[in-house]
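#struct-pred

JT: dropping the chains for the assembly here, can someone run the whole complex?
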Amino acid sequence: MAIWNEAKECMSRDQMCVLQGERLKKQVKYVYHNVEYYRKKMQNVGLEPGDINGLEDLTKLPFTTKDDLRDTYPFGLFAAPQSEIVRIHASSGTTGKATVVGYTRRDIDVWAECVARALTQCGIGKNDIVQVAYGYGLFTGGLGAHYGVENVGATVVPMSTGNTKKLITMMNDFGATGIMCTPSYLLHIAETLYETGEINNIKLKAAVCGAEPWTEKMRQQIEEKLHLNCFDIYGLSEIMGPGVACDCIEHKGLHVQEDHFLPEIVAKETLQPVPDGELGELVFTTLTKEGIPLIRYRTKDLTSIDRTPCACGRTTARIARFKGRSDDMLVLRGVNVFPSQIEAALLEMDGILPHYMIIVDRVNNLDTIEVQVEVEERFFSDEIKELEKLTKRIEGVIKTAIGLAVKVKLVEPKTLERAEGKSVHVIDKRVFD
Amino acid sequence: MFIKQVSVFLENSAGRLQSALKVLKNENINIVSLSLADTNDYGMLRMIVSDAARAKDALKAAGLSAHLTDVLAIKLPHTVGSLEHVLSEVADAGINVEYMYALSTKDENACIVIKPENAEACAKALEDKKFDFVTNEEVENF
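RK: done, full complex below.
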Protein backbone atom coordinates (compact mmCIF):
# COMPACT_ATOMS: atom_id res chain seq x y z
CA MET A 1 0.00 0.00 0.00
CA ALA A 2 1.08 3.56 -0.66
CA ILE A 3 2.57 5.88 1.93
CA TRP A 4 1.26 9.48 1.95
CA ASN A 5 4.37 11.25 3.28
CA GLU A 6 7.34 8.92 3.12
CA ALA A 7 9.76 11.63 4.25
CA LYS A 8 8.01 11.95 7.59
CA GLU A 9 6.53 8.50 8.08
CA CYS A 10 9.65 6.51 7.30
CA MET A 11 12.39 8.54 9.00
CA SER A 12 15.06 6.78 10.99
CA ARG A 13 14.55 6.92 14.75
CA ASP A 14 17.56 9.24 15.10
CA GLN A 15 16.23 11.66 12.50
CA MET A 16 12.82 11.65 14.16
CA CYS A 17 14.32 12.39 17.57
CA VAL A 18 16.28 15.31 16.16
CA LEU A 19 13.16 16.69 14.45
CA GLN A 20 11.04 16.23 17.58
CA GLY A 21 13.71 17.85 19.74
CA GLU A 22 13.89 20.91 17.51
CA ARG A 23 10.14 21.24 17.30
CA LEU A 24 9.70 20.74 21.05
CA LYS A 25 12.18 23.54 21.74
CA LYS A 26 10.31 25.83 19.39
CA GLN A 27 6.86 24.87 20.69
CA VAL A 28 7.83 25.45 24.34
CA LYS A 29 9.22 28.87 23.47
CA TYR A 30 6.05 29.71 21.51
CA VAL A 31 3.79 28.62 24.34
CA TYR A 32 5.83 30.46 26.97
CA HIS A 33 5.61 33.73 25.11
CA ASN A 34 1.98 33.46 24.01
CA VAL A 35 0.06 31.74 26.82
CA GLU A 36 0.13 33.48 30.18
CA TYR A 37 -1.25 30.40 31.95
CA TYR A 38 1.63 28.24 30.71
CA ARG A 39 4.20 30.94 31.40
CA LYS A 40 3.10 31.06 35.03
CA LYS A 41 2.97 27.28 35.22
CA MET A 42 6.57 27.07 34.02
CA GLN A 43 7.71 29.92 36.24
CA ASN A 44 6.15 28.16 39.22
CA VAL A 45 8.58 25.29 38.75
CA GLY A 46 11.47 27.58 37.87
CA LEU A 47 11.54 26.80 34.16
CA GLU A 48 12.41 29.06 31.25
CA PRO A 49 12.26 28.19 27.56
CA GLY A 50 16.06 28.08 27.53
CA ASP A 51 15.96 25.08 29.86
CA ILE A 52 14.35 22.95 27.18
CA ASN A 53 16.96 22.05 24.60
CA GLY A 54 15.69 18.74 23.31
CA LEU A 55 13.75 15.57 24.02
CA GLU A 56 15.92 14.81 27.05
CA ASP A 57 14.42 17.85 28.81
CA LEU A 58 10.79 16.88 28.17
CA THR A 59 10.17 15.44 31.64
CA LYS A 60 11.12 18.76 33.25
CA LEU A 61 7.90 20.24 31.90
CA PRO A 62 4.72 20.17 33.98
CA PHE A 63 1.73 18.13 32.81
CA THR A 64 -1.47 19.58 31.39
CA THR A 65 -4.86 18.08 32.25
CA LYS A 66 -8.47 18.62 31.30
CA ASP A 67 -8.75 20.72 34.48
CA ASP A 68 -6.33 23.24 32.99
CA LEU A 69 -8.61 23.56 29.98
CA ARG A 70 -11.61 23.98 32.24
CA ASP A 71 -9.90 26.56 34.44
CA THR A 72 -9.03 28.66 31.41
CA TYR A 73 -12.41 28.23 29.68
CA PRO A 74 -13.02 29.17 26.97
CA PHE A 75 -9.91 30.56 25.26
CA GLY A 76 -7.33 30.85 28.04
CA LEU A 77 -4.91 28.30 26.58
CA PHE A 78 -5.08 29.65 23.04
CA ALA A 79 -1.69 30.80 21.82
CA ALA A 80 -2.92 32.44 18.64
CA PRO A 81 -5.07 35.59 18.59
CA GLN A 82 -8.71 35.22 17.58
CA SER A 83 -7.91 36.78 14.19
CA GLU A 84 -5.81 33.69 13.39
CA ILE A 85 -8.32 31.13 14.69
CA VAL A 86 -10.44 29.77 11.85
CA ARG A 87 -12.34 27.06 13.67
CA ILE A 88 -13.56 26.00 17.12
CA HIS A 89 -14.40 22.51 18.30
CA ALA A 90 -15.55 21.46 21.74
CA SER A 91 -16.00 18.30 23.74
CA SER A 92 -17.58 17.57 27.08
CA GLY A 93 -15.74 18.37 30.27
CA THR A 94 -15.97 16.67 33.64
CA THR A 95 -18.37 19.19 35.12
CA GLY A 96 -20.53 19.86 32.14
CA LYS A 97 -18.44 22.79 30.99
CA ALA A 98 -17.16 22.14 27.49
CA THR A 99 -13.49 21.82 26.62
CA VAL A 100 -12.92 24.30 23.84
CA VAL A 101 -10.15 24.06 21.26
CA GLY A 102 -9.21 26.41 18.42
CA TYR A 103 -7.42 25.84 15.13
CA THR A 104 -5.44 28.18 12.91
CA ARG A 105 -5.53 27.66 9.16
CA ARG A 106 -2.23 25.84 9.45
CA ASP A 107 -3.58 23.59 12.23
CA ILE A 108 -6.43 22.58 9.94
CA ASP A 109 -3.89 21.78 7.20
CA VAL A 110 -1.78 19.67 9.59
CA TRP A 111 -4.92 17.86 10.70
CA ALA A 112 -5.95 17.12 7.12
CA GLU A 113 -2.37 15.91 6.50
CA CYS A 114 -2.57 13.52 9.45
CA VAL A 115 -5.94 12.13 8.37
CA ALA A 116 -4.64 11.79 4.81
CA ARG A 117 -1.71 9.74 6.08
CA ALA A 118 -4.14 7.57 8.04
CA LEU A 119 -6.46 7.06 5.07
CA THR A 120 -3.56 6.19 2.77
CA GLN A 121 -2.51 3.68 5.41
CA CYS A 122 -6.01 2.19 5.11
CA GLY A 123 -5.72 1.93 1.33
CA ILE A 124 -7.98 4.87 0.58
CA GLY A 125 -7.02 7.19 -2.27
CA LYS A 126 -8.45 9.44 -4.94
CA ASN A 127 -10.37 6.64 -6.65
CA ASP A 128 -12.51 6.09 -3.57
CA ILE A 129 -15.89 7.34 -2.44
CA VAL A 130 -15.95 7.67 1.34
CA GLN A 131 -19.01 8.13 3.54
CA VAL A 132 -18.21 10.03 6.71
CA ALA A 133 -20.76 8.95 9.30
CA TYR A 134 -19.24 10.61 12.35
CA GLY A 135 -21.23 13.48 13.78
CA TYR A 136 -20.60 16.84 12.12
CA GLY A 137 -20.54 19.74 14.51
CA LEU A 138 -18.65 20.66 17.65
CA PHE A 139 -17.42 17.04 17.85
CA THR A 140 -14.15 16.74 15.89
CA GLY A 141 -15.08 13.42 14.26
CA GLY A 142 -17.12 14.55 11.27
CA LEU A 143 -15.20 17.59 10.07
CA GLY A 144 -11.82 16.08 10.95
CA ALA A 145 -12.46 13.01 8.83
CA HIS A 146 -14.05 15.12 6.10
CA TYR A 147 -11.01 17.32 5.48
CA GLY A 148 -8.76 14.28 5.44
CA VAL A 149 -10.85 12.52 2.79
CA GLU A 150 -10.79 15.65 0.64
CA ASN A 151 -7.05 15.94 1.16
CA VAL A 152 -6.31 12.46 -0.22
CA GLY A 153 -8.49 13.40 -3.18
CA ALA A 154 -11.22 10.87 -2.54
CA THR A 155 -14.89 11.82 -2.86
CA VAL A 156 -16.35 12.60 0.52
CA VAL A 157 -20.02 11.98 1.28
CA PRO A 158 -20.78 13.91 4.50
CA MET A 159 -23.49 11.67 5.95
CA SER A 160 -23.08 12.66 9.60
CA THR A 161 -25.08 10.46 11.98
CA GLY A 162 -28.67 9.48 12.49
CA ASN A 163 -30.06 8.22 9.22
CA THR A 164 -29.04 4.62 8.61
CA LYS A 165 -31.55 4.10 5.82
CA LYS A 166 -30.27 7.00 3.76
CA LEU A 167 -26.69 5.96 4.46
CA ILE A 168 -27.32 2.48 3.08
CA THR A 169 -29.22 3.77 0.06
CA MET A 170 -26.35 6.07 -0.84
CA MET A 171 -23.79 3.38 -0.07
CA ASN A 172 -25.49 1.27 -2.74
CA ASP A 173 -26.33 3.97 -5.26
CA PHE A 174 -22.94 5.73 -5.12
CA GLY A 175 -20.91 2.53 -4.88
CA ALA A 176 -19.14 3.81 -1.75
CA THR A 177 -15.78 2.08 -1.19
CA GLY A 178 -14.93 3.54 2.19
CA ILE A 179 -16.73 4.43 5.40
CA MET A 180 -15.70 6.28 8.55
CA CYS A 181 -17.84 5.86 11.66
CA THR A 182 -17.85 4.36 15.13
CA PRO A 183 -17.29 0.57 15.11
CA SER A 184 -20.54 -0.12 16.95
CA TYR A 185 -22.47 1.88 14.38
CA LEU A 186 -20.77 -0.03 11.57
CA LEU A 187 -21.84 -3.32 13.11
CA HIS A 188 -25.34 -1.94 13.29
CA ILE A 189 -25.13 -1.01 9.60
CA ALA A 190 -23.83 -4.50 8.82
CA GLU A 191 -26.81 -6.09 10.53
CA THR A 192 -29.20 -3.93 8.57
CA LEU A 193 -27.42 -4.86 5.33
CA TYR A 194 -27.90 -8.54 6.11
CA GLU A 195 -31.55 -8.05 7.02
CA THR A 196 -32.35 -6.28 3.77
CA GLY A 197 -30.15 -8.55 1.67
CA GLU A 198 -28.22 -5.54 0.38
CA ILE A 199 -25.01 -7.02 1.75
CA ASN A 200 -24.30 -8.50 -1.70
CA ASN A 201 -24.50 -5.14 -3.47
CA ILE A 202 -22.06 -3.10 -1.44
CA LYS A 203 -18.58 -2.22 -2.70
CA LEU A 204 -16.96 -1.19 0.60
CA LYS A 205 -13.31 -2.13 0.83
CA ALA A 206 -12.14 -0.15 3.85
CA ALA A 207 -13.69 1.03 7.10
CA VAL A 208 -11.90 3.50 9.35
CA CYS A 209 -13.42 3.29 12.79
CA GLY A 210 -12.82 5.00 16.10
CA ALA A 211 -14.13 7.48 18.65
CA GLU A 212 -15.09 4.77 21.13
CA PRO A 213 -13.40 1.85 22.88
CA TRP A 214 -13.63 -1.43 20.99
CA THR A 215 -11.90 -4.75 20.76
CA GLU A 216 -9.70 -6.57 18.26
CA LYS A 217 -12.48 -9.17 18.14
CA MET A 218 -14.96 -6.53 17.05
CA ARG A 219 -12.57 -5.35 14.34
CA GLN A 220 -12.27 -8.89 12.97
CA GLN A 221 -16.02 -9.34 13.20
CA ILE A 222 -16.52 -6.23 11.05
CA GLU A 223 -14.00 -7.52 8.50
CA GLU A 224 -15.70 -10.90 8.27
CA LYS A 225 -19.20 -9.54 8.04
CA LEU A 226 -18.52 -6.81 5.51
CA HIS A 227 -15.60 -8.41 3.58
CA LEU A 228 -13.37 -5.36 3.90
CA ASN A 229 -10.31 -4.12 5.78
CA CYS A 230 -11.19 -2.42 9.02
CA PHE A 231 -8.84 0.06 10.70
CA ASP A 232 -8.63 1.71 14.11
CA ILE A 233 -8.24 5.49 14.10
CA TYR A 234 -7.57 7.48 17.27
CA GLY A 235 -7.63 11.07 18.27
CA LEU A 236 -8.79 13.58 20.81
CA SER A 237 -9.92 17.11 20.31
CA GLU A 238 -7.44 18.54 22.82
CA ILE A 239 -4.55 17.35 20.66
CA MET A 240 -6.24 17.60 17.24
CA GLY A 241 -9.09 15.19 16.60
CA PRO A 242 -9.20 11.89 14.69
CA GLY A 243 -5.94 11.10 12.94
CA VAL A 244 -3.51 11.55 15.83
CA ALA A 245 -2.87 7.83 15.34
CA CYS A 246 -4.20 5.04 13.11
CA ASP A 247 -3.34 1.41 12.54
CA CYS A 248 -2.09 -0.05 9.24
CA ILE A 249 -2.72 -3.26 7.34
CA GLU A 250 -0.39 -5.11 9.77
CA HIS A 251 -2.78 -4.27 12.64
CA LYS A 252 0.09 -4.26 15.12
CA GLY A 253 -0.60 -0.95 16.81
CA LEU A 254 -1.64 2.54 15.77
CA HIS A 255 1.01 4.70 14.06
CA VAL A 256 1.31 8.02 15.85
CA GLN A 257 1.93 11.10 13.69
CA GLU A 258 5.00 11.69 15.79
CA ASP A 259 6.39 14.64 13.90
CA HIS A 260 3.33 16.59 15.10
CA PHE A 261 2.40 14.88 18.35
CA LEU A 262 5.09 13.69 20.73
CA PRO A 263 3.89 10.63 22.67
CA GLU A 264 5.03 9.53 26.13
CA ILE A 265 3.79 6.68 28.29
CA VAL A 266 3.91 7.37 32.03
CA ALA A 267 3.08 5.21 35.03
CA LYS A 268 -0.45 5.80 36.26
CA GLU A 269 0.58 6.41 39.86
CA THR A 270 4.03 8.01 39.71
CA LEU A 271 3.62 9.76 36.34
CA GLN A 272 7.22 8.72 35.58
CA PRO A 273 8.01 7.47 32.05
CA VAL A 274 7.80 3.69 31.66
CA PRO A 275 9.94 1.60 29.26
CA ASP A 276 8.55 0.90 25.77
CA GLY A 277 6.07 -1.98 25.80
CA GLU A 278 4.86 -1.32 29.33
CA LEU A 279 1.33 -0.20 30.05
CA GLY A 280 0.80 3.36 31.21
CA GLU A 281 -1.06 6.58 30.54
CA LEU A 282 -0.60 8.16 27.15
CA VAL A 283 0.68 11.74 27.26
CA PHE A 284 0.97 14.01 24.24
CA THR A 285 2.92 17.19 23.58
CA THR A 286 1.89 18.99 20.43
CA LEU A 287 4.94 19.94 18.35
CA THR A 288 3.53 22.16 15.63
CA LYS A 289 0.22 23.39 16.99
CA GLU A 290 -0.56 27.11 16.75
CA GLY A 291 -4.13 27.48 18.01
CA ILE A 292 -3.99 25.62 21.28
CA PRO A 293 -0.60 23.98 21.78
CA LEU A 294 -0.56 21.63 24.77
CA ILE A 295 2.47 20.50 26.73
CA ARG A 296 2.45 16.99 28.19
CA TYR A 297 -1.32 16.61 28.01
CA ARG A 298 -2.54 13.63 30.00
CA THR A 299 -5.03 11.75 27.80
CA LYS A 300 -6.06 9.35 30.62
CA ASP A 301 -6.02 6.61 27.98
CA LEU A 302 -4.02 3.53 28.98
CA THR A 303 -1.76 1.91 26.39
CA SER A 304 1.84 0.93 25.62
CA ILE A 305 4.23 2.10 22.91
CA ASP A 306 6.41 0.31 20.36
CA ARG A 307 9.09 2.38 18.58
CA THR A 308 10.45 -0.39 16.37
CA PRO A 309 9.88 -0.08 12.59
CA CYS A 310 6.67 -1.66 11.28
CA ALA A 311 6.46 -4.30 8.54
CA CYS A 312 4.34 -1.84 6.53
CA GLY A 313 7.48 0.26 5.98
CA ARG A 314 6.65 3.07 8.37
CA THR A 315 8.92 3.85 11.27
CA THR A 316 6.55 5.98 13.32
CA ALA A 317 5.92 4.77 16.87
CA ARG A 318 2.88 2.60 17.39
CA ILE A 319 0.57 2.61 20.38
CA ALA A 320 -1.33 -0.55 21.33
CA ARG A 321 -5.10 -0.83 21.32
CA PHE A 322 -6.37 0.98 24.41
CA LYS A 323 -6.69 -0.96 27.62
CA GLY A 324 -9.04 1.45 29.35
CA ARG A 325 -8.90 4.79 31.06
CA SER A 326 -7.32 6.09 34.21
CA ASP A 327 -10.38 8.19 34.99
CA ASP A 328 -14.10 7.44 34.98
CA MET A 329 -14.89 8.91 31.57
CA LEU A 330 -17.32 6.82 29.52
CA VAL A 331 -17.35 6.84 25.76
CA LEU A 332 -20.94 6.30 24.69
CA ARG A 333 -21.80 6.17 20.99
CA GLY A 334 -18.63 8.14 20.39
CA VAL A 335 -19.53 10.83 22.90
CA ASN A 336 -17.41 11.45 25.98
CA VAL A 337 -19.51 11.35 29.11
CA PHE A 338 -18.39 11.87 32.68
CA PRO A 339 -20.67 10.40 35.35
CA SER A 340 -20.25 13.72 37.18
CA GLN A 341 -22.15 15.47 34.36
CA ILE A 342 -25.16 13.25 34.96
CA GLU A 343 -24.82 13.77 38.69
CA ALA A 344 -24.71 17.55 38.26
CA ALA A 345 -27.85 17.42 36.11
CA LEU A 346 -29.73 15.35 38.71
CA LEU A 347 -28.60 17.69 41.45
CA GLU A 348 -29.70 20.74 39.52
CA MET A 349 -33.27 19.45 39.25
CA ASP A 350 -34.30 20.36 42.79
CA GLY A 351 -31.02 21.00 44.53
CA ILE A 352 -31.03 17.56 46.17
CA LEU A 353 -29.18 14.62 44.71
CA PRO A 354 -31.27 11.47 44.44
CA HIS A 355 -29.65 8.06 44.63
CA TYR A 356 -28.86 6.95 41.12
CA MET A 357 -27.00 4.38 39.10
CA ILE A 358 -25.82 4.59 35.51
CA ILE A 359 -26.04 1.28 33.66
CA VAL A 360 -24.19 1.14 30.36
CA ASP A 361 -24.67 -1.78 28.03
CA ARG A 362 -24.32 -2.63 24.37
CA VAL A 363 -27.44 -4.05 22.74
CA ASN A 364 -27.30 -5.00 19.06
CA ASN A 365 -23.95 -3.23 18.87
CA LEU A 366 -25.31 0.09 20.06
CA ASP A 367 -24.51 1.57 23.43
CA THR A 368 -27.48 1.95 25.73
CA ILE A 369 -27.54 4.14 28.80
CA GLU A 370 -30.04 3.62 31.56
CA VAL A 371 -30.09 5.90 34.56
CA GLN A 372 -31.88 4.36 37.51
CA VAL A 373 -33.24 6.88 39.99
CA GLU A 374 -34.75 6.01 43.33
CA VAL A 375 -38.28 7.30 43.87
CA GLU A 376 -37.75 9.21 47.07
CA GLU A 377 -40.48 10.79 49.19
CA ARG A 378 -40.34 14.07 47.30
CA PHE A 379 -40.78 12.30 43.94
CA PHE A 380 -43.62 10.04 45.03
CA SER A 381 -46.99 10.14 43.39
CA ASP A 382 -49.59 7.41 43.24
CA GLU A 383 -50.45 8.53 39.71
CA ILE A 384 -48.59 6.89 36.83
CA LYS A 385 -49.07 10.10 34.84
CA GLU A 386 -47.03 12.06 37.38
CA LEU A 387 -44.32 9.40 37.57
CA GLU A 388 -44.03 9.39 33.80
CA LYS A 389 -43.75 13.16 33.83
CA LEU A 390 -40.94 12.80 36.34
CA THR A 391 -39.21 10.23 34.13
CA LYS A 392 -39.42 12.55 31.13
CA ARG A 393 -38.17 15.46 33.17
CA ILE A 394 -35.10 13.55 34.36
CA GLU A 395 -34.46 12.28 30.84
CA GLY A 396 -34.65 15.87 29.64
CA VAL A 397 -32.13 17.32 32.09
CA ILE A 398 -29.67 14.50 31.43
CA LYS A 399 -30.00 14.86 27.68
CA THR A 400 -29.31 18.57 27.97
CA ALA A 401 -26.26 17.86 30.10
CA ILE A 402 -24.58 15.13 28.04
CA GLY A 403 -26.14 15.52 24.61
CA LEU A 404 -27.28 11.91 24.50
CA ALA A 405 -30.70 10.38 24.97
CA VAL A 406 -30.86 8.13 28.01
CA LYS A 407 -33.55 5.89 29.41
CA VAL A 408 -34.53 6.77 32.95
CA LYS A 409 -35.90 3.98 35.09
CA LEU A 410 -37.53 4.76 38.40
CA VAL A 411 -36.69 2.25 41.09
CA GLU A 412 -37.78 1.67 44.66
CA PRO A 413 -36.03 3.66 47.39
CA LYS A 414 -32.97 2.09 48.99
CA THR A 415 -32.61 -0.57 46.32
CA LEU A 416 -29.55 0.85 44.58
CA GLU A 417 -26.19 -0.22 45.82
CA ARG A 418 -24.53 2.00 48.39
CA ALA A 419 -20.84 1.43 48.52
CA GLU A 420 -18.78 2.36 51.54
CA GLY A 421 -16.73 5.44 50.94
CA LYS A 422 -16.69 6.43 47.29
CA SER A 423 -19.96 5.12 45.97
CA VAL A 424 -20.17 3.30 42.69
CA HIS A 425 -22.44 5.09 40.27
CA VAL A 426 -21.63 3.31 37.03
CA ILE A 427 -22.09 -0.28 35.95
CA ASP A 428 -20.55 -0.78 32.52
CA LYS A 429 -21.69 -4.12 31.13
CA ARG A 430 -19.94 -3.69 27.78
CA VAL A 431 -17.11 -6.10 27.11
CA PHE A 432 -13.80 -4.77 25.78
CA ASP A 433 -11.73 -7.98 26.11
CA MET B 1 -66.06 11.61 52.92
CA PHE B 2 -62.55 10.74 51.77
CA ILE B 3 -60.99 7.48 52.68
CA LYS B 4 -57.31 6.67 52.98
CA GLN B 5 -55.74 4.57 50.29
CA VAL B 6 -52.30 3.02 50.71
CA SER B 7 -50.17 3.47 47.57
CA VAL B 8 -46.99 1.46 47.14
CA PHE B 9 -44.37 1.97 44.43
CA LEU B 10 -43.03 -1.43 43.37
CA GLU B 11 -40.42 -2.54 40.93
CA ASN B 12 -41.96 -4.55 38.10
CA SER B 13 -40.13 -7.76 38.96
CA ALA B 14 -40.79 -11.14 40.50
CA GLY B 15 -41.56 -11.18 44.21
CA ARG B 16 -42.00 -7.45 44.78
CA LEU B 17 -45.79 -7.56 45.08
CA GLN B 18 -45.62 -10.58 47.34
CA SER B 19 -43.11 -8.87 49.64
CA ALA B 20 -45.52 -5.97 50.15
CA LEU B 21 -48.46 -8.27 50.83
CA LYS B 22 -46.40 -10.31 53.29
CA VAL B 23 -45.88 -7.19 55.42
CA LEU B 24 -49.66 -6.72 55.67
CA LYS B 25 -50.21 -10.37 56.50
CA ASN B 26 -47.66 -10.22 59.32
CA GLU B 27 -49.36 -7.11 60.69
CA ASN B 28 -52.75 -8.79 60.50
CA ILE B 29 -54.08 -6.07 58.22
CA ASN B 30 -56.97 -6.98 55.93
CA ILE B 31 -57.01 -5.86 52.31
CA VAL B 32 -60.50 -4.71 51.43
CA SER B 33 -59.76 -3.91 47.84
CA LEU B 34 -56.80 -3.32 45.56
CA SER B 35 -55.76 -2.32 42.11
CA LEU B 36 -52.40 -2.70 40.44
CA ALA B 37 -51.25 -0.38 37.68
CA ASP B 38 -48.26 -1.53 35.71
CA THR B 39 -45.67 0.02 33.44
CA ASN B 40 -42.63 -1.56 31.86
CA ASP B 41 -40.39 -0.71 34.79
CA TYR B 42 -42.57 -0.35 37.84
CA GLY B 43 -46.02 -0.90 39.24
CA MET B 44 -48.31 1.07 41.54
CA LEU B 45 -50.18 -0.95 44.11
CA ARG B 46 -53.22 0.85 45.48
CA MET B 47 -55.11 -0.68 48.38
CA ILE B 48 -57.95 0.01 50.73
CA VAL B 49 -57.05 -1.77 53.96
CA SER B 50 -58.50 -2.22 57.43
CA ASP B 51 -55.89 0.08 59.02
CA ALA B 52 -54.28 2.42 56.52
CA ALA B 53 -52.00 4.33 58.90
CA ARG B 54 -50.56 1.17 60.44
CA ALA B 55 -50.19 -0.43 56.99
CA LYS B 56 -48.21 2.53 55.74
CA ASP B 57 -45.89 2.51 58.75
CA ALA B 58 -45.30 -1.23 58.51
CA LEU B 59 -44.58 -1.06 54.78
CA LYS B 60 -42.17 1.81 55.31
CA ALA B 61 -40.45 -0.01 58.14
CA ALA B 62 -39.98 -2.90 55.70
CA GLY B 63 -38.20 -0.50 53.34
CA LEU B 64 -41.04 -0.09 50.87
CA SER B 65 -42.17 3.18 49.37
CA ALA B 66 -45.68 3.59 50.81
CA HIS B 67 -47.88 6.66 51.01
CA LEU B 68 -51.43 7.56 51.96
CA THR B 69 -53.71 9.11 49.37
CA ASP B 70 -57.21 10.50 49.79
CA VAL B 71 -59.74 8.85 47.49
CA LEU B 72 -63.52 8.85 47.20
CA ALA B 73 -65.45 5.60 47.65
CA ILE B 74 -69.00 5.92 46.33
CA LYS B 75 -71.80 3.48 47.06
CA LEU B 76 -73.83 2.36 44.07
CA PRO B 77 -76.81 0.07 43.58
CA HIS B 78 -76.13 -3.20 41.73
CA THR B 79 -78.04 -2.03 38.67
CA VAL B 80 -77.22 -1.43 35.05
CA GLY B 81 -76.10 2.13 34.42
CA SER B 82 -75.39 3.14 38.01
CA LEU B 83 -71.67 3.58 37.46
CA GLU B 84 -72.31 5.49 34.26
CA HIS B 85 -74.58 7.73 36.25
CA VAL B 86 -71.83 8.61 38.73
CA LEU B 87 -69.36 9.28 35.95
CA SER B 88 -71.77 11.44 34.04
CA GLU B 89 -72.03 13.69 37.13
CA VAL B 90 -68.24 13.77 37.40
CA ALA B 91 -67.92 14.55 33.71
CA ASP B 92 -70.57 17.26 33.88
CA ALA B 93 -68.56 18.94 36.62
CA GLY B 94 -65.61 18.93 34.19
CA ILE B 95 -63.53 16.67 36.40
CA ASN B 96 -61.07 14.13 35.05
CA VAL B 97 -60.69 10.71 36.70
CA GLU B 98 -57.08 9.72 37.33
CA TYR B 99 -57.94 6.13 38.14
CA MET B 100 -60.65 4.03 39.67
CA TYR B 101 -61.37 0.51 40.81
CA ALA B 102 -64.11 -1.49 42.47
CA LEU B 103 -64.34 -1.90 46.22
CA SER B 104 -65.78 -5.13 47.58
CA THR B 105 -68.31 -4.75 50.34
CA LYS B 106 -70.40 -7.19 52.35
CA ASP B 107 -73.69 -5.36 51.89
CA GLU B 108 -75.92 -5.29 48.86
CA ASN B 109 -74.44 -2.18 47.33
CA ALA B 110 -71.59 -2.05 44.94
CA CYS B 111 -68.85 0.47 45.59
CA ILE B 112 -66.37 2.32 43.40
CA VAL B 113 -63.11 4.00 44.41
CA ILE B 114 -62.28 7.14 42.45
CA LYS B 115 -59.20 9.34 42.42
CA PRO B 116 -60.40 12.50 40.71
CA GLU B 117 -58.15 15.25 39.46
CA ASN B 118 -59.83 17.75 41.74
CA ALA B 119 -60.88 15.81 44.84
CA GLU B 120 -62.73 18.59 46.68
CA ALA B 121 -64.75 19.67 43.66
CA CYS B 122 -65.63 16.09 42.81
CA ALA B 123 -66.74 15.31 46.35
CA LYS B 124 -68.92 18.40 46.38
CA ALA B 125 -70.47 17.64 43.01
CA LEU B 126 -71.38 14.10 44.06
CA GLU B 127 -72.58 15.18 47.49
CA ASP B 128 -74.93 17.67 45.87
CA LYS B 129 -76.40 14.80 43.89
CA LYS B 130 -76.93 12.84 47.11
CA PHE B 131 -74.48 10.06 46.48
CA ASP B 132 -73.41 8.00 49.49
CA PHE B 133 -69.76 7.73 50.44
CA VAL B 134 -67.97 4.97 52.28
CA THR B 135 -66.23 6.29 55.41
CA ASN B 136 -62.99 5.30 57.06
CA GLU B 137 -64.94 3.79 59.94
CA GLU B 138 -66.86 1.57 57.57
CA VAL B 139 -63.67 0.41 55.91
CA GLU B 140 -62.19 -0.57 59.26
CA ASN B 141 -65.20 -2.78 59.92
CA PHE B 142 -65.49 -4.40 56.51
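JT: nice. The radius of gyration of chain A is 23 Å. The mean pLDDT of chain A is 92.
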